[in-house]
Amino acid sequence: MGYRLLAMSIDGVLLKSNDRMSRETKEAIDFVRNKGVYSVLVTNRSFSAAKKVAKHLKMEHEMICHGGALLAGLSGASILEARMPAELVYDAAACMENYPCRIQLESQDYEWENKQPPTNNMLGKIQFSLGEGLFQPKTYTNQISSAVAEKQLTALRLFGEFEETKDAEDCRLELINEIPGIIIEQQQNHLTIKKEEATKEHALTWLMSELGIQREELIYIGSGTADAPALDLAEIGVAMGQSPEEVKQHADWITRSNDQNGLAYMVKEVFRKQMRVEI
């Protein structure tokens, strides 16, 4: 049985530390495509940011983006969404507004951000989702919860940047206790809030079911902590060489780092003897 699906992250996998993609990586993706292997981006990036990478690689398949909250084709048509309804977004935003906090609401086609004035403890430039970049039109408002109530805004993700890490932790605990059906990721003074189904592994499992692909036919390659469950899901979970140790513990194979063309090395080792497969 050959491997029929290659799922890969963008940051730390396809891109080097300087955010550029090497010629070797592009050639590796072409090599896999010529083998008939279904290739899918699975990323924390927004749809518009992921689409730019997909077009650069001439990929035509679906993308799992917004950290697993959206599975969509290149046209932008939603295939699977884990969208937070307006009432859930309102409750979460209202809770976060009890703290000095910069809040950002993200959907596929729009972003909203509060006009929280910066202080000495706040970052001069908002940096959510590991610096992936946010590309949708942005609207500023005095209060996110009021905008959500007035316009019934839904969201794929809600971000919070707090002045103090303790405030972020206190808010996280409050959200967990008061709002069911969400997951919260914390990185120091940053929170990311999503619907509990909005995970990379959930969207990937759904896509595999639709394509008739078994777990034994999946290779997943990632580099960050959010990739760990998907690494566990795959027959071969591949961690990049620069990945944190906690991520490597979930991998079946540790390849070279992104700056050493780890994806291209892995592809050549795994797929060079595989015959063409059909999906």
Please provide a written account of the structure.
With 279 residues, the chain is of the alpha/beta class. The chain has two domains: 5-81 and 198-271, Rossmann fold; 86-195, Hypothetical Protein, Haloacid Dehalogenase-like Hydrolase, Chain: A, domain 2 (2-Layer Sandwich), CATH 3.30.1240. The protein has ten helices and 14 strands. It has helices spanning 10-14, 23-34, 47-56, 86-96, 144-151, 165-178, 200-211, 228-233, 245-248, 262-271, and strands at 5-8, 38-42, 63-65, 70-72, 78-81, 101-106, 111-114, 138-141, 157-162, 182-187, 190-195, 218-222, 236-239, 253-254. The strands form two sheets. Strands 5-4-3-2-1-12-13-14 form an eight-stranded mixed β-sheet, sandwiched between helices. β4 (70-72) and β5 form a beta hairpin. α2 (23-34) packs parallel to α10 (262-271) and α4 (86-96) packs antiparallel against α5. The longest helix has 14 residues, at 165-178. It is elongated, with a radius of gyration of 19 Å. Residues 120-134 have low confidence and may be disordered.
